[in-house]
Amino acid sequence: MPMEKTFSPAEAEARITAAWISEKVGAAGANAKPGAPAFSIMIPPPNVTGSLHMGHAFNNTLQDILIRWHRMQGHDTLWQVGTDHAGIATQMVTERDMALNQEPNRRDMGREKFTARVWQQKVKSRGTIIGQLQRLGASCDWDREAFTMSGAPGAPAGEDGNFHDAVIKVFVDMYNKGLIYRGKRLVNWDPHFETAISDLEVENTEVAGHMWHFKYILANGETYEYIEKDEEGNVTLRERRDYISIATTRPETMLGDGAVAVHPSDARYAAIVGKMVHLPLCDRLIPIISDEYPDPTFGSGAVKITGAHDFNDYQVAKRNNLPCYRLMDTRAQMRADGAPYAEAVARAREIAAGSPTNESEVDSLNLVPEKYRGLDRFEARKAVVADINALGLCVSTLISEIDPETGSEHLTREPFVEDKKIMQPFGDRSKVVIEPMLTDQWFVDTAKIVEPALEAVRTGKTKIIPESGEKTYYHWLENIEPWCISRQLWWGHQIPVWYDRFGNTFCAATFESAAEKAVALRSKDYGGRKIVVAELPDEKSLTSPDIIGGSNTAQVSAAVWGDDDESDLLEVTLFLRRDPDVLDTWFSSGLWPIGTLGWPEPTPELAKYFPTSVLVTGADILFFWVARMMMMQLAVVDEIPFHTVYLHGLVRDAKGKKMSKSLGNVIDPLEIIDEYGADALRFSNAAMASLGGVLKLDTARIAGYRNFGTKLWNACRFAEMNGVWEGHITQTQPPHATATVNRWIIGETTRTLTEVNAALTDYRFDQAADALYKFVWGKVCDWYVEFAKPLFDGPEAAETRATMAWVLDQSMILLHPFMPFITEELWSTTGTRSKRLVHTDWPTLPQSLIDAPAMAEMTWVTTLIDDIRSARAQMHVPVGLKLDMLATTMDPAATEAWTRNEVLIKRLARIESLTTATTAPKGAITIAAEGASFAIPLDGIIDIAAEKSRLQKSLDKLAKEIGGLKGRLDNPNFVKSAPEDVIDEARANLEARQDESAKLTAALARLAEIG
User: DSSP 3-state assignment of 475?
Assistant: First the structure.
């Protein structure tokens, strides 16, 4: 059956994908040779409710290239596929869907029913991202699809597995080893979802803001001499003050201030360090302290310290043993709980005076004055500012106004408020302002597990590519903070910790195990009576502080707990409640390498494929995921999770800008596949994958690579029309060739194979793609197809047909990891094949196939033809016009090369004749070749005057462009402020235009010789 005129991606891709899946071509170990080494990749698990974006498309293309390359080499490969339960994202999607369907909200529904509803959403959504990966051509082991919540309680049929058990086991083991603990710490708090979130889930955005300046009055009527000096030490201001001035962008947080801090070197405030000031609107005093944090050159040099609501302030508070008073509830409203303000502030004054306390008691004290309790934080801000202004405690400025009628000057003082841009944190999903919040959370004591992860990279046991990633890795891990692993959600791995009403903690994998621990602890209290342990169900309003008994009492109220049932003289019932928090998804995905291979069971897959070979992932999650996997695997199984980490940057648009819906430059990979085919997108991804470079995706480039696929298709059709595929059977080695052209293309194939192997070994996908493009398009489709035409009618016809079949086969094989669909289709339609291309052996060609004389001769021929074509195009010589050419010098080697290839050169370069001459005539095009010089007379060939005019216009235009580019690059402000990629682009444009100008100037000079 003859080949179709064109390749139809829309029809072929779906058909080929279905065949690959049904034949399980990506199964673990498929196509493996006996005794072959293992090669494994763990897919960075996408969100189960997500969809394919350009980052996924890029990342998975590179993984698939590596997997297909190793599989074709006969290695025992596994590309482990799966999805992440994505706590916040999936819960958000589910609640949004519930709202659309007018279902009860999760609080009305209750935890058990809500999690069942999320499982429904997961099952419904799961196929989207998997199906999209398959559209991209990903050849994963689909039967081994993993999920980070498989086997969890309440999981529906088909969601079995032991990933949940592995996660719980690790938590319990790490807790028992003292690597996990519960404590208060400042976290990013999302008031919409009412949970802590990671730094990766925070978007810092510049917004219009305000800076308010307030006075904190010194206690006991004290004053001090305030002096300001200029850089030369001259006094510019001297006055007696009874206050210290602070500035803030969040006035509502000052209600929880613990101190005012100044730098130790700031002479302005040296006399009052250690003094007390009145906290405005609050009936308490706070100290002035010295600390390295304040910048004496910024503003007044004095900063308020609110340890419970600012990350920098929290560190200052810890260093100086200051209390951290939490002002807001989980919805970022000013707290309305706890004792009356008068009672709370009285206790705060006792603490300030040295009364013993603890972190829990400090957190329980609500120091929000009654007036502001229950207000939204932004409403409270307005009220606080108004009240401070009313008290005259704002820093004011003198405003001068001239009466238009009398001309007299009126002076008034107004509060000093700066309008300024500020960086504000927003939740990436909720889009609300994130509040730094001091909360009870679970933490991994990373300081105890970080060293092995550092050592693995230092010693080269795990290699990070590019090397710049290692520096970032070291910086983060050498300065690591405790890792907050709890989230205040319902969807996720619920923390395996139970509490009794006295705040005792029981960590265990199951309730039954926790109950045994509770019985062991309490048995002595009941004198041998039988103890029955019951689990209290979650309540809609229950929070972690409720469970562990709040902060200032040992026993929780009966309203929350009820009482342990001691009514039976022979039996007592103890009640336990489970911690309602779930684990951060980074904790469970941190176990992805071993969890997907069946750990803690000693599975054959674990023994064979772990540690994995390479992780391909974005540089933006080097710390959040990669480093944590390193720490977790080393802590759990004492082994690195992967030998190599390949980091790539963010995929940007053609101009290097971050893709954004607001900018309208988001590229949907599925739309690209619909328009250009998956192969074109994949090859574009590989071609732009330079190490450490900016990943610019240009649809024009994608269109070009679609044409590249078409070029190969047409070459195969040309071969079909010339009988190349008749009776063709796959040959691993090339035929014996005598014709120079055939020996040359066999050598070029061998050289390209060597380049591709070397590039992929070094993870230089861009270099591999470049080598393939130049070979397939340039050497095979452009040159060899043309060179073969006359040979089909000569004595080397059979040899040439066999060589062309072999070369095109090799082109399909080498291109297959990059462009799997079109190559698989060509493979199945161009000969008799023993197996699909996806499982065809990767070539192993000896270097002896590179015939140096043939390579040199054909390089001479192709270079000469290219130079003649280029010169003709530059001078606007009509394409179809045949020209006479002169040889002014030719050594024996050049003469021999010309003689053997004269027919090819004349036909492809449109040369009528070659004669010898001693010199080139004036105005002739001169062409230099190795061992020869040629000239093409132009007199009478082109309109000299018109051509000179055209060249001059082009030169004038280039001169303006060169001048503009030089002006930008010579401007220090441009070089200093412009992004590096913009500067590089300007330099490249300048160099290209200068080169073009030089060529046109030389051409114009040649024409001037004629007249």
Answer: helix
Q: Tell me if 173 sits within 8 A of 469, measured CB to CB.
A: no
Contact between 493 and 588 under an 8 Å Cβ cutoff? The reply is yes
Find, among 288, 295, 351, 354, the residue nearest to 324 by Cα: 351
C-alpha pair distances (Å), 852 with each of 146, 773, 777, 931 = 52, 22, 22, 17
Residue found under tokens 């094949």: 833
Tokens read off for 429: 């999903």
Which sign does the torsion angle of CA 360, 445, 84, 678 carry?
Answer: positive
pLDDT digits (tens, 9 = 90+) for 361-403: 999 999 999 999 999 999 999 999 999 999 999 987 766 677 7
CA distance 868 to 882: 12
Q: How many CB atoms lie within 10 A of CB 287?
A: 18
Residue type, 154: G
| Distance from C-alpha of 269 to C-alpha of 262, rounded to nearest angstrom | 7
Residue owning tokens 């250009």: 676
CB atoms within 10 A of CB 367: 24
Query: Torsions phi, psi of 632, nearest 5?
Result: -70, -45
Question: For the packed helices 740-761 and 797-815, what is the interaxial angle rounded to 10 degrees?
Answer: 10
Q: Tell me the β-bridge partners of 312.
A: none
What does the chain come to in residues? 1011
Closest by CA position to 453, among listed 641, 664, 249: 641
Query: How far from chain centre, in Å, is Cα 236?
Result: 51
Is the predicted pLDDT of residue 258 greater than 80, yes or no?
A: yes
* Cβ burial 626-661 (10 Å sphere, 16+ → b, else e): bbbbbbbbbbbbeebbbbebbbbbebbbeeeeebee
Are 239 and 228 contacting, i.e. CB atoms less than 8 angstroms apart? Answer: no
pLDDT at 168 over 90: yes
What does the pLDDT average to over 866-876? 88
- Supply the pLDDT for residue 627: 96
Q: Looking at the predicted structure, is the pLDDT value of residue 343 above 80?
A: yes
HSE-CB of 121 using CA atoms within 13 angstroms = 25
Q: Compute the CA torsion angle 398, 403, 409, 412 (nearest 10 deg).
A: -20
Side-chain half-sphere CA neighbours of 193 within 13 A = 30
User: Shortest CA distance to 785 belongs to which of 879, 909, 908?
Assistant: 908
Nearest residue to 220 via CA among 269, 285, 302: 285
- DSSP string of 418-470, one letter each residue: EEEEEEEEEETTT-SBPEEEEEEEEEE-GGGTHHHHHHHHHTTSSEEESTHHH
pLDDT confidence of residue 297:
87
Closest C-alpha among 189, 367, 402 to residue 283: 367
Give yes or no for residue 522 having a pLDDT over 80.
Answer: yes
Return mean pLDDT, the chain.
91
pLDDT digits (tens, 9 = 90+) for 713-726: 999 999 999 999 99
Q: How far apart are CA 293 and CA 306, in angstroms?
A: 13
* Residues 472/515, Cβ–Cβ less than 8 Å: no
Q: How far is the C-alpha of 623 from the C-alpha of 477, rounded, in Å?
A: 8
Residues forming a β-bridge with 483: 444
Residue 559, pLDDT > 50, answer: no
**Helices marked H in 197-340 — which ranges?**
311-319
Instruction: Write down the pLDDT at residue 141.
Output: 97
Q: What is the mean pLDDT of residues 439-460?
A: 96
Q: Which residue has the tokens 């303000």?
A: 341
Residue 553 has pLDDT above 50, yes or no: no
Burial code (b: 16+ CB inside 10 Å, e: under 16) for 594-612 equals bbbbbbbeeeebbeebbbb
Q: Are 584 and 87 in contact (CB under 8 A)?
A: yes
Write the pLDDT tens digit of every residue in 596-639: 999 999 999 999 999 999 999 999 899 989 999 999 999 999 99
Q: What confidence tens digit (pLDDT) does each residue in 888-934 have?
A: 999 999 999 999 999 999 999 999 999 999 888 887 888 889 999 99
